[in-house]
Fold:
Amino acid sequence: MSMTREWLLSDQPVSRRQARLGQAYRTWLDFRTNGLAMFGFLIVLVLVLLAVFAPWLAPHDPLVGDLNTTRLLPPLTEGYWLGTDDQGRDILSRLIYGSRITLAVVALVAVIATPVGLLVGTTAGYFGGWVDTVLMRFTDIVLAFPKLILALAFVAALGPGIENAIIAISITAWPPYARLARAETLTIRNSDFIAATKLQGASSARIIWKHIVPLCMSSVIVRVTLDMAGIILTAAGLGFLGLGAQPPQPEWGAMIAGGRNFLVDYWWVATMPGLAIFTVSLGFNLLGDGLRDVLDPKRQK
Amino acid sequence: MSLLEVENLRVTFPTRKGPAEVVRGVSFTLGRERLGIVGESGSGKSQTGRAILGLTPPPGAATADRLSFDRTDLRSLSAKQWRGLRGKRMSMVMQDPKFSLNPVMPVGKQLMEVLRTHGAGRAAAREKALQMLDAVQIRDPERVFRAYPHELSGGMGQRVMIAMMLVSEPDLLIADEPTSALDVTIQIEVLRILDKLVSEQGMGLIFISHDLRLVSSFCDRVLVMYAGRVVEELKASELHQAQHPYTQGLLNCLPQIDEDRHPLPTLDRDAAWAD
Amino acid sequence: MLSVDNLEVTFAFGTDEVRAVRGVSFNVQQGESYGIVGESGSGKSTVLRAICGLAPVSGGRVTLDGVDIPAPRTPDFYRRVQMVFQDPYASLHPRHTIDSVLSEPLSIQGFDRRDERIAQALEEVGLGQGFRFRYPHQLSGGQRQRIAVARALILEPQILLLDEPTSALDASIQAEVLNLLDRLRAERGLTYVMVSHDLAVISHMCERLVVMEHGLAVEELTRADLRSHRAETDYTRKLLKASAGYTREDEPA
Structure:
């Protein structure tokens, strides 16, 4: 069967697959009309491509520089377009490899924190009563910790390193998703379509998983995307404080930390990774805003 | 001299598949009478009412060859001129009072606010507000005056809404399904209030509803709308002599308490009705 | 077949209690269509919800073929009793295709030949196979309500609880759905309990009915009583009069 536009937009799909793809295509058409969101999407896409193709795109070795010839070269030097740092390493190459770390942090936090938040929130919201009280008070407790400080404590306990930083960030990231999922669940759980499912004899787990989670999903995805900027900043902050990625890993936050000692004389060493963090954060924020416009169930008729 | 003249009213909404015309050339005149507009969902009856008040929701647009209210051309009014008309000389009552009342302000205060924008003093506004609540058959006006909208039942809320629209004694009231959310017994009471206002104050009333039976028992004249057009206009008392197959179909498909028709006749929509 | 004896439903809001149903009794025979009429707040829908376990039963008994219905309700109970809700816009999951709406009950109850059953259910409610993979937002209100009926009937229940199944629909669509319900009852020998505020709809659909007001059963009537306006209580007479439309002659006292 051909994947034409008409096939996707058909009012009478003939298979499950066509119905799903058609729905996704309509969402994409909606999304495409939002210029800023497309710009954010493009930034994130570039980040992904950089991470995937880093070995082919980076002109130099990101970890080892030549201390004799290439130390602290200014930007626009031939072959070193963004300059080099105090170890003589090409900043552009380090940024490109650093995108892998950034993306890994973002992806892992999303994969760990989102399901936890969804599960806690929908369970609390669906059952209500003491289940709700216990789960949400626990969430409140986690929520009450300052994000960076809790992450610091974890990293201090588990030892510095990017893996521990990711775990630490995930632990502090899920409570808002739980709150959000719970709020959505409360509006859904008394609706007729949930009642109808109960009347088919469905178990609570099935109702939560197959009927409530899909409806909470879109607002949580939007929230996660919007939080990505904050997660990247937290990861960079941990790196900056020396508790995240360890040298010589090219993590952007650690790169800023490395450049801050000679910020006045060699401004580019700290500025370039700063710009990278700024751009990617902006990209995720724009993408999140765009997703909210097309995915938010409250806006759909 | 008629109060409202509408000629070739059209309301268009842009969609992904191009512009969609939901009201397609509606014309009528209204005197100081009860005019019913009946149609099913999607017939354009509500959009007709909104367009008259200049309340077509964007990105929709309304055009007309003639749209005049008491010799004022409504098509070229500025926002400021609209404010002078809407809520003062022409008002609208919607189906659900909850959406039209401010939830965090007692209803009495809301009534007084409307009155005070019309230039009444504080004490006078309070006096008049209580009078209006009394006029819409609210038994304990003092209590309702202090109540917040969520403390009122549907019927009460709708009466407050009507009181709100009526404080300024408009010349024209457009009521869009004002009683559809109400129980039948309360429905009748609300209609009685509207009826009194038409007969005693000479107000013009446009009553928009899906309920053909109710409209025909309440209004003087009925416009039947289908797919954005008026397919038939008749005197309410002559509804049973309706000529158009759509009107006849609508009348026939209603179950009756004292009739046994199994199966009920259904409406075979003719594509030609929409042309 | 279905017997409700002195049913009471009380909702607790913190320390406040609302007695939504205060002792309602009726018997529904096999193959009968039984109506419950009342205005909002009369507790008529709560009776249905209590029967199928969506509202708490705080007193009285509900029996099916003489046996107390289990609490909490079991999946087996739901194979015998199903419900159709009032608002077709709220009763279908917005992100599920019609196909998954109809296959969900089959998979929960472990039915075989699912594709065949879904196809047959769509035909029975007068929708073709073209609707199978659509989403609810691509359907009109009447089509959605047909899907809701198909979903309830796909488990082949004996009793169908109908909670104002047509009050959210246009008059011409209402006629179609009422005819559909009529035909299905005749074909499958179903038993209906139907709730409505509309006396005409109840009179059209039901052989017997109970009138409810403020959680109490006011009186029980047959269709013939209703047709000849043989009502015992003032409240029923008031309802009958109001549903005839607006009358200008009699001003209120």
In short: Residues 91-127 of chain A form the longest helix (37 residues).
